[in-house]
Design a protein that fits this description.
By secondary structure, the protein is mainly α. Keywords: Membrane, Transmembrane, Transmembrane helix.
Length: 271
């Protein structure tokens, strides 16, 4: 169990350090600009409003709390925690790698190395998917609090990050093609990404009965809706994007409420 204790503490340490670093560079001009100033400079129809980025604080708090719970539970070395220990042991250094790529993507973005930043974002999402598989967040029938907390923290992180890939990727298309952010290609690429990503998110959240994934994604959509509403009224295709985002918000909110009600019923029947 000693190696498992080491992994649990290592995860807690790196998650805490990394998210403190992200919050620091998000609010201070360490590299000459804040994170949001860079996002605003490389604008797209998917860029969310500045308030949206507070979700990083929620994600960091949930992940730190989850890591603390693993440290506490595995300290007991009870037989009933053996499956939990096996999951953590299988995860090895994947959380460390995930946090490394996440931090690198932020630093590269701040220094406007957008292509390298996007590659690191893809690596972050790949490692996050590995963690989701190892911690079995698809399993919805495990009533243990630590499992529910793990599903919630990784779920919100995953949903938000799928949205991140969109608003990080679209500006890269503009740069590679040498076109303006208001170009028709940018608009249709944004619409296509929204349709495909939202369909995927809906499929995953319903299949796994995991509203947390949909919540993380929907926060990004909500932020983009308010950004477009307050910043880009004079830009082409804005009205079409407003209606697209509003439809997604309506469907997502209804689905989240439905999944939460179903989850409540499951917990009630389990009792």
């Amino acid at each position: 169990m000693r190696s498992v204790h080491r992994i649990a503490f290592q995860n807690l340490l790196f998650i805490t350090i990394n998210f403190l670093w992200i919050i620091l560079i998000d609010n201070n001009k360490i590299y000459g600009s804040t994170m949001y100033e860079i996002f605003d400079k490389h604008w797209s129809y998917l860029t969310p409003h500045v308030f949206t980025f507070n979700i990083w604080k929620v994600i960091s708090l949930l992940l730190v709390l989850t890591a603390i719970m693993y440290c506490i539970i595995l300290q007991r070395e009870e037989e009933e925690n053996s499956l939990l220990a096996e999951q953590l042991d299988r995860s090895g250094n994947w959380m460390l790698i995930n946090q490394l790529f996440l931090g690198l993507s932020m630093v590269l973005k701040l220094n406007e190395h957008l292509t390298l930043a996007f590659i690191c974002s893809l690596a972050t999402y790949y490692t996050l998917n590995k963690l989701n598989y190892m911690f079995k967040i698809r399993e919805s029938h495990n009533p243990a609090f630590i499992h529910i907390l793990t599903r919630t923290s990784l779920g919100i992180y995953s949903g938000w990050f799928i949205y991140i890939l969109g608003y990080n990727g679209i500006p890269l298309i503009n740069i590679l093609l040498g076109i303006e952010p208001t170009h028709a290609i940018t608009f249709y690429a944004s619409i296509l990404y929204l349709i495909l990503s939202f369909g995927y998110i809906m499929y995953k959240s319903i299949l796994c009965r995991l509203p947390a994934v949909l919540i993380g994604y929907t926060i990004g959509v909500l932020g983009a809706y308010y950004y477009n509403l307050s910043h880009v009224l004079d830009r082409p295709y804005t009205v079409y994007m407003h209606y697209t985002l509003l439809v997604i918000l309506t469907v997502a909110t209804a689905t989240i409420i439905y999944l939460l009600i179903q989850k409540g019923k499951d917990l009630f029947l389990a009792d």
